[in-house]
């Protein structure tokens, strides 16, 4: 299985970063690989949805779980991508936010 891990330091509060990354409906504006979102259901901290990815307009079904101001886990249930995408937020020693994404 392939694992991709990326991290970035952001000079902002966790609250501000969370406000942006947890707005799942706007994901195509900041996640280059996602072209379109279609939500099927939302319950508490879980969203069942279909995304259209940039690669050949392929559709993938996801179950996304939000852990407020900590992480977002997107489990790919159907489609061309298998596995999960995890976005973690952590404060680092310079009081910046470290965001990491792993597949």
Describe this structure in words.
- The protein has one domain: START domain (Alpha-D-Glucose-1,6-Bisphosphate, Chain A, domain 4, 2-Layer Sandwich).
- 12% of the residues lie in helices and 54% in strands.
- The chain has 2 helices and 7 strands, in the order βααββββββ.
- It has helices at residues 14-21, 27-30; strands spanning 5-10, 34-43, 46-53, 59-67, 71-78, 83-91, 97-102.
- It has a 7-stranded antiparallel beta sheet.
- The chain is globular.
- The model has no long low-confidence stretch (mean pLDDT 87).
Keywords:
Alpha-D-Glucose-1,6-Bisphosphate, Chain A, domain 4; 2 helices
CATH architecture: 2-Layer Sandwich
Nearest-angstrom radius of gyration? 14 Å
Element order: H for helix, E for strand? EHHEEEEEE
What is the tally of helical segments? Answer: 2
Based on helices, strands and strand pairing, what is the structural class? mainly beta
The total beta strand count reads 7
Give the full name of the CATH homologous superfamily: START domain
Q: Give the proportion of residues in helices.
A: 10-25%
Uncertain stretches of 5 or more adjacent residues: none
What fraction of residues sit in β-strands?
A: over 45%
CATH topology term: Alpha-D-Glucose-1,6-Bisphosphate, Chain A, domain 4
Which term fits the overall shape? globular
Please tell me the total number of domains.
1
- In round numbers, the mean pLDDT is 87
- Neighbour order of strands in the largest sheet: 1-7-6-5-4-3-2
Given this structure, which CATH class is correct? Alpha Beta
Distance between the termini: 10 Å
């Amino acid at each position: 299985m392939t694992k991709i891990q990326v991290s970035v330091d952001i000079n902002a509060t966790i609250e501000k970063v969370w406000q942006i990354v947890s707005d799942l409906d706007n994901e195509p504006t900041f996640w280059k690989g996602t072209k379109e979102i279609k939500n099927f259901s939302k319950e508490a901290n879980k969203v069942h949805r279909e995304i259209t990815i940039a690669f050949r307009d392929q559709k993938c079904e996801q179950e996304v779980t939000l852990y407020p101001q900590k992480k977002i886990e997107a489990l790919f249930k159907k489609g061309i991508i298998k596995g999960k995408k995890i976005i973690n937020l952590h404060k680092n020693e310079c009081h910046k936010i470290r965001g990491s994404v792993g597949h």
